[in-house]
Amino acid sequence: MDTSDDNIQQLAHIHELVIATLDCFSNVVQFEHAREMLNFYKFLPKLLEFFKVVEMNTEKKKLKNQKQSVASLGGVSDPTKKLFPEVKSILIEIITCLVYQNKDNQDLVRNTQSLELILNNCNLDANEPFIKERAILCIKYLLENNPDNQNFISQLEAKGTDIDEENHKILTKAGFEVDIVDGKVKLKKAQKIEELEQKIRK
C-alpha cells in the first residue's frame, strides 16, 4: 500500500470535504421542509449505502488502544482500513433525523440491512467519540411505534454478534427490556416507559 505524503494529504483533504458536506446536511435535516425534500429525492437509501462503504473501509479503535494511534489519517493498524474520524457519527445523526416519526424510513433502514449496522455502532470508538450516544438515540427512534423493527431485533440470535451483553444495555437505554427465552431475544418496552406513556395519555 502506498503511504506517501501525497496520498496521506489527499486522504486528509477528502476527509475534510466529507465532514463539511455531512455537517451541512446534519444542520438542515433538523427542519421538516428539508427532510421532505431529502425524502422526495430518496436521499436515505444513498446515505445508507455510503454508511456501509465507510463501515467496511474504516478502522474502529478501542479506547484502550488510543495511545497507540497515530496522528495522520494514513496510519492505521490494518493496512486495508482508513481513519475517517467522526464521519459515522454525523451519518447516524442525519439518519436519526430522517427516521424520527417516519415509518417509511424506519422500514427502509430495516429492509436494507442497516438496522444491524446502527446497532453494531453502539460501541465506544476512540475515532468516533460520540457515536455510542448518537446510535442509541437512533435505535430508539427506529424502534419507536414500529412493531416490525422491534420484532426484527427480537428475532436476532441471543448469542450472535448483534445482541450481546453490551447491546442489552444499549437497548435498555433506548427504553426497551431484553429477555432471552429459548435462545431467542424477546423485546418489550421498559416498565418505566410504559408507565410514563400511560400518564401522558391520561
Automatic annotation (TrEMBL):
Looking up SUPFAM superfamilies in the UniProt record yields:
ARM repeat (SSF48371)
Q: What domain of life?
A: Eukaryota
Keyword Cell cycle in annotation: yes
Q: What's in the keyword line of the UniProt record? A: Cell cycle, Cell division
- Pfam families in the cross-refs: Atx10homo_assoc (PF09759)
Q: Where is the Ataxin-10 domain?
A: 87-188
Q: Name one GO biological process term.
A: cell division
CC annotations in GO: cytosol
Sequence similarity: Belongs to the ataxin-10 family.
Say what the protein does: May play a role in the regulation of cytokinesis.
Q: This protein is called what?
A: Ataxin-10 homolog
Species this protein is from: Ambrosiozyma monospora (Yeast)
Name the lineage.
Answer: Eukaryota, Fungi, Dikarya, Ascomycota, Saccharomycotina
